[in-house]
Amino acid sequence: MADYKISIIPYIESMVNQLTPLEKKVAQYFIADHESSTDFSSKAVSKRLFVSEASLTRFAKKCGFSGYREFIYQYQESFTESKPLPSNLMTNVFDSYQELLNKSYSIIDQEKIVRIIKLLLSQKRVYIYGKGSSGLVAEEMKFRFMRIGLVCEAITDNHIMQMNQVLLDEGCLVIGLSISGQTSEVLNGLKMAKKRGSKTILFTANQTNEASVYCDEIQLFAIKDNLSTGNIISPQFPILIMIDIIYAFFMETNRKQRQEIWQDTFEALQEKE
């Protein structure tokens, strides 16, 4: 069981939109990393930031503290030894997420990620198959990657997966998401895609020798006992970690252009009829 540090930084971050420009400057200072030996006295900080000590007091009060002294006491607590969470229920949840993060770090293969990026860039159309929790991840993946220029579609309906095979050819990439590696609709979709000459990738927590026959790449993600049932934490979490890593690599293939596309989609979402 791990110990976890209690920090007031999340509270500071939650207040940023309600702060004045001067107060935001103070907030960003405390959000940044600092050594525990740093002098956080009001006099030292005000001199460092070129603000008055009264400004520090107003900032502290806006964050919900009685004054700067109480604020800085709570802030410096995060530099002390970690403390166990007060509830076993909370501990179980945090420990589960930490376990999956550690496993994800251990399982990642950068060379495979690079090969997956090449497939995303080389194929003219991308389809993402998923059912249940994996289907929700498929929709999330579609939304995120469309916003940076990838032409893709998420398919979570059995009948549409079957009909979609008619549209597949050598220029397509089909990505299947299955925690168990046994979701028949997704696996059959990948098999049919391979027969039609499409490139195929399976994201799963359970590798099988059979899948390697009809998948160009099999990307594993971390697993935990009973993960697929979602009885402790969301079964989507380890898949989303892997998707985020691929997203980061894909973004770097042409960051300037993809950032411009992201901005265009952002503005399109803000438009009102």
UniProtKB/TrEMBL annotation:
Gene3D superfamilies: Glucose-6-phosphate isomerase like protein, domain 1, Winged helix-like DNA-binding domain superfamily/Winged helix DNA-binding domain. Coiled coil: none annotated. SUPFAM superfamilies: Homeodomain-like, SIS domain. Residues 116-256 form the SIS domain. One of its GO terms (molecular function) is DNA-binding transcription factor activity. Pfam families: HTH_6, SIS. InterPro entries: Homeodomain-like_sf (IPR009057), HTH_RpiR (IPR000281), RpiR-like (IPR047640), RpiR-like_SIS (IPR035472), SIS_dom (IPR001347), SIS_dom_sf (IPR046348), WH-like_DNA-bd_sf (IPR036388). This is RpiR family transcriptional regulator. Keywords: DNA-binding, Transcription, Transcription regulation. GO terms for biological process: carbohydrate derivative metabolic process.
